[in-house]
Amino acid sequence: MNEQLQPWWRRNACRWFRWVAAMLAVVVGGGVLAAWLAARHSVRPDRDATVELPGLAAGAAVAFDRYGVPHIQAGSVEDAVRIQGFLHARDRFFQMELMRRAARGRLAELLGSAALPTDIKMRRWMLAEAAERQSAALDGESRRLLEAYAGGVNAALDRYGARGLAPEMLLLGGSVAPWRAADTVGIGLLMELSLTWAAGEELERAAILAALGREKAVALWGWSESQAEAWLPAAPPAAPPRGDDSSAMPRFSGIGSNNWAVAGWRSLSGAPLLANDPHVGIANPSTWYEVHLETPTVALAGASIAGAPGVLIGHNEHLAWGLTMTMQDDQDLFALSLDESGRRERIGDAFRDLDVRDEVIPVRGAREGTPVRLKASAHGPVVREEGGTVYALAWTALRGSSPLPCFLKLDRATSVGEGAAAFATCEAPGMNLVLADRAGHIRWQVVGRPPRRGCGFGRVPTDGSNPACGWSGFAPFEDNPFLEDPPTGAVASANHDPFAEGDFPGPPFAAEFAPPWRIRTIKRALAGRERWDVAGFVALQADVANPQADALLERLRPVLATVDSDAARILEAWDRRMDAGSRGALLWALFLRELGRRVGGDEAEAAGLAASPIGGGELLRLLTGGLDPAWWDDGRTAEVETARDIVAAALAAAARQAAGMRWGERHRVFFRHALGGVPILGAALNVGPFPAPGAGPCLNATAYSGGGEGFDVVSLPSLRFVADLADWDRSVFTLPLGQSGHFLSRHADDQTADWLAGRVHPMPWSAAAVRAAAVATWRLVPGRE
Question: What is the SS3 assignment for 623?
């Protein structure tokens, strides 16, 4: 029998059995029946239906394709985003509820004491306060759209109830508040927070500076003397206390995103092509939600965030765009000087009162809530007080306005120039926007406005008592780098340093740039082929060649030639590709980790770091004379080790650990649900683990943490998108899991096999393509408020 004609419960039988077993183990009596019925109702398969939706101005329709992607046709933008809110809630409400609670520091109220550290952090960072302030400052059109979206979410809550939308709520209980515009703004701030770690990098540098001294630390970072003079204060900052979790930042083998575009004369279709695959932390459900909205004035398709209207990555009738992070240093830590009361800070010769307030965090299962004292200085919220040093945080996302209006303007833009100008007023986040329009233009544009610093460059914590060192607004948008229609016919970004890689002359802005491996792979590939098509871009996104390994092994070859072992011969013969079935790839990853630990482990111990400060970039500089050869010596031993000693020992240790295994046996992707750690429930809610190809330096950047013993994926391509501007119906898309957040739905993980294999699905755009792809259609009619 055709799968689509089978009873829905048979298509999802395995999930049903896991779910029923979990429910029997966790819930008792009538709760089991209630959970079973609610789950059955909320994930019934898409089918033709008529739905009343309060607040609609006119009738509308939604066609669902085989992947559960909704194609919305509405008479106005307000109606379209109202329907989008309804569908987001229907498919992803538990995800939305967790995100808005996280932004407000109210997770423990639902999840218990395990979530308390997150709540304390969010309250100290004052995200909820910023969300309310930014929401109140929205322009009229943006507010109307956010309120229409919220109306759709609330209509779904009224129709299904929170427990009908999210069966997880049957286990957790708790009350659910109506959705508000400020909730959407708060989710935006939460996403911005997940994409920056500049403050932690400052603390790590302070620890290294204190432990190694100025000369050795500056050499490790690869700074010139003039940079060190400009970026480091005359008096070094105090080292953070040992065990401080933000100074013990895990080092990643690679994290970031890719986007690129070619002009029409470089494509087989004769029109520009654009590709984007943003890399973020693993999420279950998927981070993104694919959607297509069609109205008389605006038409959009691409990636949305459950909790927000519109499309963040995708295309409209005229324009396609993709995003990566610039890695702009958008956070500064200010070390405060407080009086004995701890409630006043010294700035210059005067003292200023801190803003202090006490809050209570409700905790599920606790008789009383947990009190927390929040403080704000002239520089920003006080985020850390442990160890005798008090730090306040300045962050562009807290100082500026919400970026949501800028994205809503981008959704309506008709050219690359209009698309870039949509972000002229946005202070954060710092992003590389790559655009292509139907007129044939392509553009790379840096958006986000760096802060004007009074002193320093944001490399280490700043003296908060110096009145000259605070922020004074933001740099003008007009100063941001951009490149339009270059002679090469191509633009690209990969979180890299555009100044060092020759994309823009400068002056540079402060940033925590990613290593250049991915951007060099992209540029080399684009230069090596004259004309491209969608299939070529898709294959490039899935590329697992490791240019970091290529560069390092070339430099290591003379040393490895003196090591007579099977492991050395395996590395010599290895094709430098991180295929899941490769033994050489696993041996390389283990060898690189062992090298970093043996070269920099003694310095890491001295600085109190969780991981060695020596990664692939530092090793390459060591091998090419950019670092003192004394780094090869392990200060923890009595001997003086040479490069050969360290390389031989690292390779022998890596060979023992590899034990004949393949890369995918140690490099796995595991999509853990928020409740996946609960015994028995995890079998129903988690997805995976699966062997994963790729690594951080590859374009298929399934990155792993540099600390610890494993190589499991910590960040990944959260979507893959390619647009052909000659024919929008040829554009393609894929997600790591699927559209639905319901673990019983066939759309919960129906894209995972394709994502792992680097395959994609079409994005129907034209009316004919949408009709051909539709498996069910809803007719929406205005309902009573």
Answer: helix
